[in-house]
Amino acid sequence: MTSLVVRSKLMANGFNSSILSSHISKQYSRQYHNSRAAKLVFSEFGDPVEVVQKENENIVEPKEKEVLLKVLAAPVNPVDINIIQGKYPIKPHFPVVPGIEGVAEVVKVGTEVSDLNEGDHVVPLEGDLGLWRTHLTVAEDKLLKVPKSLDLVQAATLTINPCTAYRILKDYTDLKPGDTVIQNGANSACGQNVIQICHSWGIKTVNIVRSRPNFEELKEFLTGLGATYILTEDELRSTDIFKSGQVEKPKLALDCVGGNSALAILRHLQNSSPMVTYGGMSRDPVPVPTSALIFKDIQVCGFRITDWIKNNEKSDNRFTMFKELISMMANNELKGPAHELVGFSNYKYALKNTLTFKGMIGRKFILEFDK
After folding, report:
1. SS3 sequence of 136-198
2. Which residues form the Enoyl reductase (ER) domain (predicted)?
3. Active-site residue 88, yes or no?
4. Which among 32, 88, 229, 347 is annotated as catalytic?
């Protein structure tokens, strides 16, 4: 029963306005207290399809500075998969509810909550809240309010890949309009964000992907996001776009693959330029020639967004970043990744396909909790 219907019926039966709000509040308190929620949880490492189970739980009433959330959507990220498999360097304490990012609606607020209201949309400021669940009660200061005008995919995927792309483009060299960035894994969710942010900033991108049957389709998709050049790994070995002057040598290389793919993009860098490794999809080490270090002064760096967040949890830089990214989304300069929405009850499909395709499918699976 909606609050409007409750209010109408109470007033029709003679309730005065001074006790009306209290009555409604108590009714909703009983409603949530007696309601059941559901979550995905694992208590041992292994194959996500096997070890992740769906369980019911009670909804927890929010304390003074807490809010009760209804989760709307949460993506299945490679990091989530690695954590469940036990392959992530940091091991959680069991039992664990996965889900490092997502978007939720505020359905109830504690008595001392000041900046959030019922109906607001929020995203997590911390990655350990566990958003693969229908409801969650959490402290207000662990959440960031986002415009309800953002679509579910944009909001649900805001806190990891767009932030990673933004930081690795901002923090390692001084990029200016007309400069060039080269990246591998360009069809990944982060790669798609790199393309769009660079396009918005007037920076050219050389985007490397693995060979695949639908390469022309992928090329058309990435070009639509603003990619300047799209090459397969084989094409990169023989390209003359840098020697011919079609595009300047890159001032920044971004690596999420490792192995020979990392070496291939490193070789095209300008002298005294950085390569930032933020992923290792190939699981191969990054080979760096001695000559690149001594004669070209190439800097090889690593980046992890969770470490950056720990060091900048309440910094102005962090909230300036969110403001700019949300503005780009609102202006349609930054779209959500290619994706497939999957109903919560069908979560094994999302896990299985994320495992099976390993980035080749070119879309992110996102759990949708209203279905």
Report:
1. EEEEHHHEEEECCCCCHHHHHCCCCHHHHHHHHHHCCCCCCCCCEEEECCCCCHHHHHHHHHH
2. 46-355
3. yes
4. 88
